[in-house]
Amino acid sequence: MAKETTRIVVLGGGYAGVMAALRVAGKTKRLKTAVTLISGLDYFVERPRLHEEATGTVLKGKALSAMLAGSKAQFRQGWVSQILPERQQVVVETAGERQPIPTAG
């Protein structure tokens, strides 16, 4: 019997979320896994530089999909509205629709 894919879902595209998605993707690249990073924004916010934005400097956000390029981690934009451990799912809301994302095989 073929082994099911292990699904790893990382919630949040901040420093910790991006690092976790990239590290897990790297450490599991030879295994049957799927890594998904979910964030409400499609770009990375460099929080230590937000003071520059407050003074009028326009900061260019880095696209999360570009940051994950070349890894097995995939990006999904949306806001997590529910975590359903009994169903092994998270529910992501995007542009007017709700999508369940499986967190297990």
Label this structure with key terms.
single chain, about 100 residues, alpha/beta, FAD/NAD(P)-binding domain, three-stranded parallel β-sheet, 3 helices, 8 strands
Please give a structural write-up.
It is a single chain. With 105 residues, the chain is an alpha/beta fold. It has a domain at 7-79: FAD/NAD(P)-binding domain, CATH 3.50.50. Helices cover 22% and strands 38% of the residues. The protein has three helices and eight strands; from the N terminus they run E-H-E-E-H-E-H-E-E-E-E. Strands 1-2-5 form a three-stranded parallel beta sheet. A three-stranded antiparallel beta sheet has the order 6-7-8, with no helix packed on it. The chain is globular. The protein starts with 5 loop residues before the first strand and ends with a strand.
Detail the poorly predicted runs.
none
Largest sheet geometry: 3 strands, parallel
Order of H and E elements: EHEEHEHEEEE
Q: What's the architecture of the domain at 7-79 in CATH terms?
A: 3-Layer(bba) Sandwich
CATH class of the domain at 7-79: Alpha Beta
Overall radius of gyration: 15 Å
Instruction: Output the number of helix runs.
Output: 3
Shape by Cα distribution: globular
CATH homologous superfamily assignment of the domain at 7-79: FAD/NAD(P)-binding domain
Summing up helix and strand content along with how strands pair, one would put the structural category as alpha/beta
Query: How much helical structure, as a percent, in the residues?
Result: 10-25%
Order of strands across the biggest sheet? 1-2-5
